[in-house]
Design a protein that fits this description.
Layout: E1 2-6, H1 11-22, E2 28-33, H2 39-42, E3 49-51, H3 63-85, E4 90-93, H4 99-108, E5 113-117, H5 124-129, E6 135-138, E7 153-155, E8 181-185, H6 192-207, E9 211-215, E10 231-234, H7 240-246, E11 249-252, H8 256-265, E12 269-271, H9 281-291, E13 295-297, H10 305-316, H11 319-330, H12 337-356
Parallel strand pairs: 1-2, 1-4, 2-3, 4-5, 5-6, 6-7, 8-9, 8-11, 9-10, 11-12, 12-13
Uridine-diphosphate-N-acetylglucosamine binds at residues 10-13, 15, 118-119, 185, 187-189, 215, 236-237, 240, 255-258, 261, 274, 277, 281-282, 285.
Length: 357
């Protein structure tokens, strides 16, 4: 059976899709993305990648919206052609802009569609098109309330890269075994505002013996401005499973991908949602963790270096609180998410395939 996976843009959309694809080894998988995003680096070694041009929906009607809809129509036609020529039997998507043409093209051909939504507040495309999908699989159970039109939902958690679930390669850093480690991560692209707050506060943490591994992203012009023997800064790091497992605390944005990984690695967190994320959706994600006692939610607009310094210093002095947060974090993990999602996809494809025969 041939399956088209439409997943594009950021790590938060791509890693869950790749983890799910790995569990679908009986299927011939091809990928749909756009020409200039992360999928061009992550996908082609494993799956044939087809690209189309597609943009986000504008908030207000105007010329931009008209252009977007013209493009969307063009993209739907392109995906229809691809689905027909490639003889695909269904579509799986992890949402975002690429999902719109993929869902609409598949439905116009009568093909089954499975959509996975990792965010607590489902994205616009998911909310708009959930009724067109055979199954909407969800990372968080609170998301069902936003999808009254969905035909069928299932709570499966969000799949993580396989490295998170087994043995990990050791870290190549010489951090003493007993030193508390703080990992700073701003999503797949880094977070300049969080970086500045961390750099202005970190000396107090070093004084307690803590180390900091700071994943800065590539857009920060001041990454060299802090130098300390207990401080390691790098734009991006691949071995996140080992790094998060070793971390005693993460200071992080609240993208669904990172949160899921923190749950799997049982890492307590301070969460600073990206304030400009679409519809402030990261705050909804962070609230799930904060309400469960897994993380502290700090809003960037109210946050100063002094506040961050004192919250982290307090946690470093409170091993019991960190331990309680780690347990609460672990309770949010769905360790077999990729298997659950893959089996739900296979079930839909089988059922719908039989109907179409
Ligand atoms: C700015 C924005 O709108 N981001 C959204 C984007 O996620 P975005 O990709 O920005 O952030 P996520 O936290 O979801 O995922 C980041 C991924 O990158 C990985 N990573 C990060 C840094 C690094 O050095 N190495 C590394 O491997 C993390 O381990 C994680 O797997 O899609 C997610 C899923 O829809 C949303 O929840 C996020 O809100």
């Amino acid at each position: 059976m041939r399956l088209l996976i439409a997943a594009s843009g950021t790590g938060g959309h791509l890693f869950p899709a790749i983890a799910t694809a790995t569990q679908l080894s009986n299927y011939e998988i091809e990928w749909l993305g756009v020409p200039d995003r992360l999928e061009t680096q992550l996908v082609p070694q494993q799956y044939p990648l087809h690209t189309i041009g597609v943009q986000g929906f504008q908030e207000r009607f105007g010329l931009g919206t008209l252009r977007t809809f013209t493009r969307l129509t063009g993209s739907i036609l392109q995906v229809r052609r691809l689905l027909k020529q490639g003889n695909f039997q269904g579509v799986f998507s992890t949402g975002g802009y690429i999902a719109a043409p993929a869902i609409l093209a598949a439905r116009s051909l009568g093909l089954p569609v499975i959509l996975h939504e990792s965010n607590a507040l489902p994205g616009k495309v998911t909310r708009l098109l959930s009724g067109w999908c055979d199954l909407v699989a969800l990372g968080f159970d609170c998301s069902t309330q936003y999808l009254p039109k969905a035909k069928k939902t299932a709570i499966v958690g969000t799949p993580v890269r396989s490295g998170f679930l087994g043995e990990t390669e050791p870290l190549p850093f010489s951090i003493p075994e007993n030193a508390p480690l703080i990992v700073v991560v701003g999503g797949s692209q880094g977070a300049v505002a969080v970086n500045q707050l961390v750099r202005s506060s970190a000396s107090a943490w070093f004084d307690t013996g803590a180390w900091v591994v700071h994943l800065t992203g590539t857009n920060d012009p001041h990454t060299d401005s802090l130098q300390h023997p207990q401080y390691l800064a790098m734009p991006f790091y691949d071995n996140m499973p080992a790094l998060l497992k070793r971390a005693n605390l993460a200071i992080s944005r609240a993208g669904a991908g990172t949160l899921t990984e923190l749950a799997v690695t049982r890492t307590p967190s301070i969460l600073i949602p990206y304030p400009y994320a679409a519809e402030d959706h990261q705050t909804y994600n962070a609230k799930v963790f904060a309400d469960a006692g897994a993380g502290l939610l700090l809003r960037q607009t109210d946050l100063t270096g002094e506040i961050l310094k004192s919250k982290v210093s307090h946690l470093l002095k409170s091993p019991q609180q960190l331990q309680d947060m780690a347990i609460a974090t672990a309770n949010l993990a769905v360790l077999n998410s990729a298997e659950q999602l893959a089996s739900a996809i296979a079930q839909v494809l089988n059922t719908e395939g039989k109907k179409n025969r």
